[in-house]
Amino acid sequence: IEIGKFAKSEEFNNIMYRSVLIYLDWFQAYYTKEVVSTAFKNAEERKNAIRSQALQGDRPGLDTIEANIQWQLIFLSLQQAELELKNVETILNTFVWENGENKKIFPLYAPNNPDKTILEIPEAEMMMDVETFQNNNPFLEPYRLKGKQLEIERKFKRDKLKPVLNINYNPIFE
Q1: Residue 142 near residue 6 (C-beta atoms within 8 A)
Q2: What are phi and psi of 102, to 5 degrees?
């Protein structure tokens, strides 16, 4: 029964670990999209500036083609970043539950809003000392239980090694 309880705790820890990794992937995808979005705006501004300079005769027409190609490449990068963000967001949304219903993560926990957190851990739990962590670690508990079981078996086998003394008492009556 104890092992089942700790197996459940271990599975919970695995789920939490996976959710944190996916959150970090989402965080990275979010900022990648933000950076590429800024680069896209800059490329569009550059394309328009070069086009207007070419129309005025300050630049050759070939520069407009080069600027347009760069704009298209960055536009493709932006679409790829948005797709990656949506994919990671969909995976992450499977981990965000509040009051028994699935919530969308983007408006609630945007990385640029540091006041919101996905998981609030009480300070008492954050300040656990190492000994408490070692004693309550669900990964170590099956080994502790196995050690106790082996200790009981060792005592039992030691008792079996004790000599057996059979005493027959025959009283002498006169």
Answers
A1: yes
A2: -75, 130
Q: Is the pTM of this model over 0.85?
A: no
Instruction: Report residue 26 as tokens.
Output: 């989402």
Beta bridge pairs of residue 102: 97
Taking the mean position of all CA atoms in its chain, how far away is CA 30?
A: 16
* Distance between CA atoms of residues 39 and 77, nearest Å: 10
Cα–Cα distances in angstroms (integers) from residue 121 to residues 7, 37, 48, 95, 126, in the given order: 22, 34, 50, 16, 7
In terms of residues, how long is the chain?
174
List the Cα angle 68/71/73 in 5-degree steps.
Answer: 110
Residue carrying structure tokens 């059979």: 166
- Greatest Cα pair distance, the chain, in angstroms, is 144
Report the SS3 class of residue 140. Answer: coil
Is pLDDT at 46 greater than 60 in this prediction?
A: yes
